[in-house]
Amino acid sequence: MSIEYDEKGKYYTNVVSKITVSSILQTNTHLIRGLVHIRQGERLKDELENEESYVAVTNASVYDANGKVAYSSPFMAVNKSQIVWIMPADDNQAGESG
Questions:
Q1: How confident is the model over 43-88, as pLDDT tens digits?
Q2: Nearest Cα to 23, choosing from 88, 78, 79?
Q3: Using one digit for the tens of pLDDT, what is the confidence trace for 11-33?
Q4: Where are the domains of the chain?
Q5: pTM (2 decimals)?
Q6: CATH match for 17-89 among 3.50.50.60, 2.30.30.100, 2.60.40.10, 1.20.1250.20
């Protein structure tokens, strides 16, 4: 990793710092729960609007139409064109109904 400094002491690096947001994504056929990686200071919406074709999701669980886990993966790249909607998950209410 290279780090460059300007005359004011600000540093520049080729590493992009990201944070994780616990999220729920709906595709045409599946519901996905996991951690979406976004740049610091940005929103999920901003991640969808950047030029990249895929959204990185870690600790992903993919649910079928019956609400059962079809499969899980430590990493998944979801094509943005397949996302119908996305929202931050409220982990305190995960699994609760009503």
A1: 888 888 999 999 999 999 999 989 999 999 999 999 999 999 999 9
A2: 88
A3: 666 666 788 999 999 999 999 99
A4: 17-89
A5: 0.74
A6: 2.30.30.100
